[in-house]
Structure formats: structure tokens, C-alpha cells
Amino acid sequence: MFTILHISDLHRSPTDPIENSTLLGSLLSDLDRYKIESRNIPAPDAAIVSGDIIQGVNLKFAGYADELTVQYDVAFNFLAALADRMFEGDRSKVVIVPGNHDVCWNTAKSAMRDYVETNPPKKFSAMSFSSDTSLRWDWSTRKIFEIADKEIYKRRLDAYWCFIARFYENARLAHPIDATRGFNLFSLDKGRILVAALESIHGNDCYCREGGIERGVIGSCALAIRDLPQQPILRAATWHHSFQGPPVGDDYMNIASVHELIGHGFRLGFHGHQHLAEANAQKIHLPEEEAMAISSAASLCAGRMELPTGANRGYNLVVIDDEYTSCRVHVRELIQGNQFGRYTRGIFKVDGYAELHWTLPPSPSGGSPAGRSRFCAEAILRAEDALNSGEPTRALTIIDEADARGHAHGRRIYLQAARSLGQNRTIIELLSEPSSIGDFVELFAALLAEKDFSEARLLLGKGPALLVDQATLDEMRNQLDLKSRFGEKR
């Protein structure tokens, strides 16, 4: 199983703050309680942070740039400490996307000017002020504004991207961060799970509240994944905005984006925004039914005035099964003494979790879905190509990342690569328990090369059990005696 800690909406309420030490301490205390739950919850292997990293600042806030820096410092310290405590400092296991609170309203407003009426006058409708247009309507002043400087407008996320660059500065990311394309890719579970971090704040600013992923971004993301040398078993996606809510709401994302993700083979989604915990499945038919399981996390840090009636601060844990075809969404909420416990309302009643299922899509290369065996086989073929291309180090890395050393052919490729690099210690580790005469002979040679004569003598004693003939054992003993006579004993 692979467990993802899903947190969202980290913005701190100025009227109801919560400190990093309180948050982190409560999360770690709750982790200790996972083991006594009626359905055991494994410790998190990775984390997804689905937007709204900070509270942000209002329009005309004096010194807004400095205030944004202060707020991102708080978020940075919390997430860095979380990575240190839960993932041994590996920040590549923390996936982050922006939310509407991460949009700097003051920068967006500086890119706008009063709209100049045309001749003849233009007719307006609600769609004239959507996120895809350059016009904005301000209800407070009953004025129309126009985004006049698109370059300045793009910089409304500069503070967020500075935070991201700082957070991942020394992280070993499989896919470099790109602030310009509307998505980023994160490899989890040694490449078996790929998370697309999508920006749902296209056109979002001080006057446009709606969420949306820019047209073409999901298609570009799907193409980028299709072009990867190794296809993941499970494609997951995270974004910030919810896609359902009150009829009068205007800050939601079009559900068509979710349907598009399903059509591209995404089977697990994560979002926040509405400050409510939920788990459901969205489905389309092409013509067969295809489904995506979706985890919606409550706000981890919002204040009482920002939480829906009856809701508490909380987070989710998503436990993915070994076949990558189902998950359990466990919901935890802040109850007493700033401590998290089981959420027992709605579909999470009694057990505190909901189970969701899906069917993996066909592999882009054809044939059956990319399950564990196919993933392993593809990795071994890539490693073999690397070895044949004179890149033994890359071959070792590929097999290590795919945990393919247990596969017979993967083991052979690994041995060949280690042998070509003269990595005797790698060979000794891999063949520590030889299962054939060939393994026995290769292990013996590696031990001699490393002058590990005591281990070589112990190995010779195991020869008869592996049906090594006496003549071969005598010859090997002679080699050992000769080398140990002139070498340093170990």
C-alpha cells in the first residue's frame, strides 16, 4: 500500500491563528493513533498540498510584498518541518499546487486600467467577465476594468513561485519545476504513481473568483506523460478548486476539466477550496464507464469564520492498494485539545473512511493496463537498452527505482551493469545468498577482488549444498590461499 497525506488550505486566519508547532505536533500525535484505528492506517509515504498556501492580502494593503514574504515563510517552515519529520527531509515527496489565496490581488490590479468605451458601445453579458477574457467587473464601484498589461498580470503568482523555488531548491525531482506551462509532474512510489499538479487559478484575481484550468493545459499535460520513457501504473492529479457547491456560488471549477482528466487516464484526484471533507467518484462513458476517485480535503488552518457550519480543521489520508485500483479515504478532524481524530459524519460515519474503486486505463503502448508486472518489465527493457548503449550506471538506477532486482532478467541486467563498472560490493550485496552455481562463482570472484577472504572461506563451505563439484571447489580454494597469502586478510 502507498499512503498519501492530503492537506489543503493552509491559509492562517489573522483572527483565529494556529502555530506551526501546534499543527505539526498534532499531526505527529495523530500518526501515533493510526495504529489503533479499526482499519489500520499506514504512515504517509508522500504528501499532496492542494492549494491556498497563504491567506494573502487585500487590495491597497501597504507593504503587501513584504507581508506575502512573511506568510510564505510561515508556510515554508511548516512544510519543510513536515518533510523532515515524515519523509526524512525528502521534499520531492511533497506535491504543491497554488490556490486562489496565492494570487496577489495587488499585482493583478496594477495590470488593469479603467475600461474605455468603444464606439459603438459594446454589449456585455456575464460571460464578458469570465476568466478567459481581459475584462473585469467590480461590484463595489460598478466599474469595468481591462487587463492592459498581460506581463504584469502573469506576475500575480511571483511570490508563490519564489516560495516553490526555495522549497524545492535542493530536492531531487524526477521532473523539473516549470512555472510557465500550467502544470508540473511529480513521481511517487518509485515512478509507479505520477501526480500532475494542475493550476486551477487561470484568470483568477481580485475581481474574478471562478476557478479554472487554462484551455489546452490538460492536453499538454497528457502528452507530456505519454512521452515519458516509463509509464506510471497510476495517474493522479491535484488542483485547488472544487467543482460543485451552492447554486449562487461563483468560485468553482468547470466539471468538464475533471471529465477531460478521466478521459486521459487519470484515476485519482485531490482538491480543496471548499473547506469540507468529501470522497466521491466522477464517471464518464467512452462508451465504457471510466471513473476517477476524488479526495476533497477540509482546510488545515482556516479560522472559525472561514469554515462552513459544523466543519472543523482537518485533513485526509488516502491509502492506495497494492494493485492501484482502489483506495481508502480516511478523514481526520481537529476535535479537542488541538488534536486530530476520526471524522464520523456523512459517508465517513462510524469507520471514518470511504472506499473508492476504479479500473486502470489501457497502456499507451497497447495491451493490458500498466500493472506492477508490466511496469517492472518496461523498466527492465529500459535498463537493458541503457546497458547496451554503454550507460551501465543509468541501467542500475532504472532497476533500483523500479525495484526490479527480484526479477530474473532484471537481476541479470543489474549484475552485468555492476560487473562492467567494477562494483564488486554491489555484486556481493545482490548475491549474498547465491541460488545457483553461477551466482556462487561470481560472488566468490567479487569477494576475492575485495580481499574479503574470511567471507570467501565461509562461502566455499556452502558449495556442496549448491552442487558445486569438488574439483571446482579445490581450484577455488587454491585461488583463495594464493591471494590471501599476498593480500591483507579481512
Automatic annotation (TrEMBL):
Signal peptide: none annotated. Residues 2-275 form the Calcineurin-like phosphoesterase domain. InterPro entries: Calcineurin-like_PHP (IPR004843), Metallo-depent_PP-like (IPR029052). It comes from the Bacteria. This is Metallophosphoesterase. It comes from Uliginosibacterium sediminicola.
